[in-house]
Amino acid sequence: MTTFRSVELGFDGAYYKYLLYDCHINYLILLKGINKMANILSISTNVAGQVGGILGGVVPRTVKIITTDNLATVTTAGYLNPSSLQGYNIYNTDIINLWYGAVAGFQSITSAGTFGIFTPSISNGVITLVQWVDPGNVLLPIVSGNLASFVGTLGEIQDSGISASSLSGAITQLGTLHSVSVTLNPTAMAAAYATPQQLIANPTASQMILILSAQVYTASTGNTPYATGTAPIIQYSSGGTNGAHGAGTIATAAGLVAGDITAATSQVRNLFQFATGAQTGLSGLGIYFSNATGAYTGGTGTNITFTLQYVVLNATV
User: What's the whole-model pTM score?
Assistant: First the structure.
């Protein structure tokens, strides 16, 4: 059975209490007077299996220290010195398990403080403790719900200071980026004048489709080009005959012209987002193709492919 006993010793007007564990001095606690070991409460090198000096024992050796000093103090060059070490030797191969910021009561350590692993760097006899950081460590403190970011290039993770909810709110408002391609054959192209052809289905009444860009591919090479029909338009519409004859609100920047549809050689027309400005009356409307003047004729074998990049906004306008 493990037993403990204590002995009080006094010298130079100062009193110390040694706690003896199995007849080995385990740690030193200041009761009153002058602390000969500064703020270090405990130093232990007597770990089973590593008895002896640097060449006569286990390498690397484990050293255990408890101190009331904070991290900034213990990592100051010269913190461990002949006075504070009180006869103990520190080797540059040692691994030091250190509790810093401990709180000492009258006859006991009431709080061990914060644990860290340190390695000694020794230069010209001056010892500097360097805190070892596991590449997979998390740098504390962190906030629940925040996103993580890397510290440097060794893999340590820290709190980014950005909450996930703040981004999810922005994503919800902006919407997910979509891309769709719809091909209209000659029959559909001829019908688009009186019955606009759907490219993107109608969203809910509280949503608005915002076109970011569009491409119109006319595959006429080797086929019959379209004739008649003018002012082609990619527009907002509710479906059916709504927006017939190209009367809907344009959904892209201007630029799609009659010659893009009636081109005798295959081509692609690239269109951008419509001009900056306030948009109203567009919630709940889908995206359709139509044209003015009259229905397209001809176009045997010529398909028109509309490719649209867009987002769906949560907006009632």
Answer: 0.51
